[in-house]
Every structure is written in C-alpha cells, then in structure tokens.
C-alpha cells in the first residue's frame, strides 16, 4: 500500500511555481496576485483562508484579504466583488464558502468575473470544463487529477466510482475522469446517498474517489483488493483521547480500507494540501493569460 502524499506533492508544485515567479521578478514582470473575500468568523473558513495567504507568500505571490463581518449585506459583498473584478492588479480571487445564510451563494459566484474565477465555480468555467475547453478547473478535482498523474496511476479504461454529486467535487470529478487526458479515459459511475446497493458499485471499482460528506462511510468490506482510494472528505470527530478533543477523519474508514488498497490518500495530508496548490496554479494561469492580452 502506497500513501498518496498530498503534502509532499503540493510542496513540489509550490516549489515549481516559486521558480516561475522568481523568473517573472528577474524579468521585471508583474507577479501573480490572489485575493480572497472572507465573510464572518467560521473557524474552518478562517483556517483555509489563512493557509491560502501563507501559501501565496511562500511562492512569491501578492495577496489581499478582504475580511468582512458575518452580518455584511449581500449588496456590500457584491460591491466588494465588483471592486476586485475591475482591479487590474488582481489576477484571480475567491469568495470563501460557505457564506452566511442570508447571502445567495449562487448569485455571488455568478458575479465573479470568469477570467478571475480561480476556484473554477462560475457557470462559464463549469460549462467550458464540461466541453473540455480551456478553463479554470475547480481546485479540489484539479488536485485529485494532479495526484493521480504524479503517482503514475493508470486510469485509462479503469472502472472509477465517484461517491458524491456536489458541484464543487463529485460532479466535476465524474466529468474530468471520463475525458481524454492522462488522468482520465475512465469508465465513470457516480453514486450518492440515494444510490441503492451502493456497495455493489464500490466492490467492482478499480478507483474510488470519495466525497460523500459522511465520516468514515466507506468500509473495508465495500472495496476489492488493489483498489485506489482518494478520500476528499474531512470531518472533526469527537475523541477524548486527543488534546483538542477531536481527531480529523475522512469519508473512508482508513483502518479497514488501507490494507486492501494499492494507493490511498491519508486524512489529513492528502487532498487538502493539493486544493491550495491548484488554486495557486490557477492564479498563475490567470496571471499569464492577463499578460498575453
């Protein structure tokens, strides 16, 4: 069993990006600039945004954080988005999800300029992805593809089961894995919480990408020997033996699945770090696109 080490792989990608940025500086070119809008004080969101700002500094990007209180109106948020849309110094930006309940998430995502949508959530980018046209890929699915490619995992002709149908991970993942690409050309089945006899699909799968949002849902008796497992989930599970009172668990029961797997992502340290690395990669792409115009 080989661990798909997202922490190491993301470190490699950041090093590669840092070299490109260093060359940009030497040639007096503008360095990439990533901005983030954070609304409220959700603990996980603050951690994610903090990690993104830190990653920008590491690779030499400029970064801006727009920190707004939880009671910010939709109108004020839209005004901040428009400022970033029209700011020529900012190459790409994200609005950290989830947003407070009084704000329409879809309306906000549609307001982002698709050319600066480095999260890959705008309908224009989603549509272009579906048609296999140049676009910003959603950062988490992009990270999964990169992990599979860099570990030389054969996907062509393989039976892939994607667990979960969210717009952020499951649905784009199922599209990307079926397309003609190095980590692609697979026969893809998408299953979800309403799928009957779900284990009958997972037991036949060569590769399972799990983003179902239920802690330790996939068990060892649901997979075959030699399966490749990519666990996208992360949940805080109460654990009195831990100093913080909880442990981090994925959507896969690691203890029972890992012995049967040929490759498996750990949680934490698997897909999570890859998401941030691919956000940086999208921002670099946005920057170079901008300089070509």
List the main descriptive attributes of the protein structure presented here:
293 residues; alpha/beta; Rossmann fold; six-stranded parallel β-sheet; three-stranded parallel β-sheet; 11 strands; 40% helix; 17% strand
Brief digest:
This protein has 293 residues and is of the alpha/beta class. It contains ten helices and eleven strands.
Structure description:
The protein is α/β, with parallel strands linked by helices and 293 residues long. It folds into two domains: 28-113, Leucine Dehydrogenase, chain A, domain 1 (Rossmann fold); 139-272, Rossmann fold (3-Layer(aba) Sandwich). The chain has ten helices and eleven strands. It has helices spanning 6-26, 43-59, 74-86, 105-111, 123-130, 139-150, 170-178, 198-202, 254-257, 271-292; strands at 2-3, 33-39, 62-68, 92-95, 159-163, 187-191, 207-210, 227-231, 235-238, 246-249, 261-264. The strands form three sheets. The protein has a six-stranded parallel beta sheet. Helix 2 (43-59) links the parallel strand 2 and strand 3. The mean pLDDT is 95.
């Amino acid at each position: 069993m080989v661990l798909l080490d997202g922490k190491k792989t993301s470190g490699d990608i950041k090093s590669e990006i840092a070299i490109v940025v260093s060359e940009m500086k030497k040639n007096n070119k503008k360095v990439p600039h990533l901005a983030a809008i954070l609304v409220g004080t959700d603990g996980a969101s603050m951690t994610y945004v903090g990690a993104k700002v830190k990653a920008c500094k590491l690779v030499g990007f400029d970064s801006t954080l727009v920190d707004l209180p939880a009671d910010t109106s939709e109108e004020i948020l839209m005004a901040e988005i428009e400022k970033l849309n029209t700011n020529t110094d900012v190459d790409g930006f994200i609005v950290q999800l989830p947003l407070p309940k009084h704000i329409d998430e879809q309306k906000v995502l549609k307001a982002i300029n698709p050319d600066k949508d480095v999260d890959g959530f705008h309908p224009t980018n989603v549509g272009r992805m579906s048609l296999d046209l140049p676009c910003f890929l959603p950062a988490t699915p992009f990270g999964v593809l990169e992990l599979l490619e860099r570990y030389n995992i054969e996907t062509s002709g393989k039976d892939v089961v994607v667990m979960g149908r969210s717009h952020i991970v499951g649905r784009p993942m199922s599209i990307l894995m079926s397309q003609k690409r190095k980590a692609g050309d697979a026969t893809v089945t998408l299953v979800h919480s309403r799928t009957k006899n779900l284990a009958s699909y997972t037991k036949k799968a060569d590769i399972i990408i799990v983003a179902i949002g239920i802690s330790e849902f996939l068990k060892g008796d649901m997979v075959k020997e030699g399966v490749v497992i990519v666990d996208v989930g992360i949940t805080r599970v109460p654990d009195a033996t831990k100093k913080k009172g909880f442990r981090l668990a994925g959507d896969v029961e690691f203890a029972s699945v890992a012995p049967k797997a040929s490759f498996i992502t750990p949680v934490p340290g698997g897909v999570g770090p890859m998401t941030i690395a691919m956000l940086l990669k999208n921002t670099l792409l946005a920057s170079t696109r901008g300089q070509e115009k």
